[in-house]
Amino acid sequence: MRTKVSETIESLNQFQFNMLCEDGKAVKNSITYQMVGVLIGAFVFGQISDMFGRKRVLIIVLLGISIFSLLTANVGNFVQFLMTRIAVGFFTGGLSAVQGVFLIENIPKRHRMWVNTIVTWSPNYIFFPLIAYLCYTWRKLSLFTSGISLLACILLAFTFESPRWMIQKGRISEARNAIAKIRKINGDTNEVDAAHIEEILADEEKMYANKHKSSGKKYTFYHIVCTKTYLIWTLTLCYGVISASLINYGLLFNIETLSGSLFWNSSLYGIVRWSTNCFVGSSDYFIPKFGRKTLHLVAVVFIVVAVITISILYTIGGQNDYNLYIRYITIAVTAIASQLSLTKMMTCSELFPTAIRNVAISAVSICSRAGVALSPQLFYLADIKLILPYIVVATLCMIDLVVFQLNVPETKNKTLENHLPPKSERLFYRRKKNKSADHIALTSTSNYTS
């Protein structure tokens, strides 16, 4: 949210950098450059967090956001502004790739969805436009962003590192101490639970000693495609977040073309999105059969029907005749589209094991940011034909609906996996093994012939 609103405020203050209305596309293109920074950050910090821990990386990226937001407030020209915003985007990419995994690994499975829908980004969309309005200038808004990021960094210092990550790294004693302190804070004195946790930790310690020895194992992006199943999951989720980001941010970056106040439209979007999140979170908590795939199905059907309706309104009357309807439908579509990204991120966190969970989230985040980087260009298609962007949105949604429903299992209330499949199930291992067998057979035949 920090990135989007400050970019919007920047578009309202173009005159400070001697940029006029005809330079609007240059400003939109600058958003693409900033999103490239986000993409790179997701790639870099996702890998680093699997190696050095979630908490440490989160503190680093929040400090980076704070420092470069402070620098943004003091730039003297548009090039300096763009460079500092790319740096902010770089650290924001790391934040988006790591914070979701850190959250998922620290909360019970029954509470994953409602915490991610209600206590998360969405309320920012309601209050941040108001803060932007009160700040009045984008420089003051950047100072606010710097301060609030520093506060988050300080608060994070009082939290615990993810016990799951520590277990996966063989730091069992540290995980044991962290879990004991968390249980003490929660007032959990159940000795049966304590004994069960200790049994799990002992098993994990033995497993780590057998598999990793003293050298440890480094996991890379290869491991999220190392089996046929993983490959299908990864491709499906990556396509899904690219299309969701194109839809969500393409409409959001084009929100200034809608009737009404930019600030009111942004706040209205936040209200609709948070209300939707509250409904989704409540449904997930109280309705056992309302899982990730059900949410995905409902969201896609809504978006397709809505964008077709917008296309019809444009065709029969144009924007001026139905601007109020188009305004509210567009805001609703943008809010619902955010559920697609949420579903993909949640599913990804629940599908992949702890050893590569952040690498998987990082890969999905990279694809998401690639979609965001391309999204400002989506409505350039309207220069060809006004309804063309909406036709593209409907097509992307229908493809996503088919591949997600067919290729991805339901993950609601699924216990998080800690370990990868055995090497015998891996694609390249099997191929290598087969080649070795063929080589042995060929050698034996040659010896027999000779």
UniProtKB/TrEMBL annotation:
Residues in the signal sequence: none
Protein's cellular compartments: Membrane
SUPFAM superfamilies documented for this protein: MFS general substrate transporter (SSF103473)
InterPro entries: MFS_dom, MFS_sugar_transport-like, MFS_trans_sf
Membrane topology reported for the UniProt record: Multi-pass membrane protein
GO CC annotations, alphabetized: membrane
Domain Major facilitator superfamily (MFS) profile: 1-412
Record has Transmembrane helix as a keyword: yes
Pfam families: Sugar_tr
Molecular function GO terms recorded: transmembrane transporter activity
Regions that span the bilayer: 57-76, 82-102, 114-135, 141-160, 221-242, 294-316, 322-343, 386-404
Keywords: Membrane, Transmembrane, Transmembrane helix
Domain of life (superkingdom): Eukaryota
Protein name: Major facilitator superfamily (MFS) profile domain-containing protein
Top-level taxonomy: Eukaryota, Metazoa, Ecdysozoa, Nematoda, Chromadorea
